[in-house]
Structure formats: C-alpha cells, structure tokens
Amino acid sequence: MSLSKRIPMFVLRLLALGASVSATLIMLTSHDTAQVFNIKFEAKYSNSPTFKYFVLINAIASGYTFILMFFPSKSSYGHLILVLDLIMGLLLDSSVSACIAIGQLGKKGNNHAGWLPICGQVPKFCDHITGALVSGFVAAIIYFFILLYSIYNLFTLKA
Length: 159
Fold this sequence. Notes:
Layout: H1 3-28, E1 31-36, E2 39-44, H2 49-69, H3 78-108, H4 123-158
Antiparallel strand pairs: 1-2
Helix pairs in contact: 1-2, 1-4, 2-3, 3-4
C-alpha cells in the first residue's frame, strides 16, 4: 500500500484509538453517591453488566487498534484485518447500543415496570455515562469509515 493510502488509514486508526480509550477511561471513572431517605447508595459503572461490557469492548478495541497502527501495511493479512475490523465495529456498535438502552432507563425510568429514574439523584454519574457513550459512538463511526476505506482500497488494488 502506498504512502498516500497509508496516511488516511493511520489517521483514522489514531482517531479510533483516541475515542475508544476516552470512552474506556470516562466510563471507568464514572461514580457518584446519593442519599435518599437516609439511605446512601453509590452508582458506579461496575454495578451494571452492560457498562462492564462497554468497558471491555472499548478496551479490546483500543488494544487492537494500537497493535494495528504498528502492523506492516505490506502484509498479506489484508483480508483478515478487514474481517477483524468488521467484527470490532460490530462489537463497538453492540456495546454502545446496549449502554444507550440502560442509560435511557436510568434517565427516564420505566413506569410499567415500576423502575424510577436515577439521574436526578446522581447527575455526575449520568454525565460521565453520557460522555462515555458519545466517545464510544464516535469510535464506532470511525470504525465504519475504516471499513469503508479498507474496502475501497481492496477493490482498487484488484482493479
């Protein structure tokens, strides 16, 4: 792959790395405490399996992206990297989607199930979750562009 085709891919991977690392760190630092009726409770990311999944997938995406930034571009593993990029994009999409569902539940509650919203009591926690979700969504979008660029390069090399 020529230098003119490697630079955009490097920049896209660098942006994806920044977004996924940011999402991981913001989610890891999300915690807040509240006191309701003299009962103190703590909201943190580790209380929800969905948020743990989000952190795990973003950490894996960060490591994968970091490794690929130093991977030789003239390798014969282009098809494998394309498939792994697709899988990473799908995993990022699934983790963001799951967290948006739980975040919506935390923000609005569910009257039918009797679940009350918690963001009024722990706004700092909800703000961190929102920031992590935005960063994770940006990482997923960048991975979409990585996929498009990789597919474009694959077809232009064969033509």
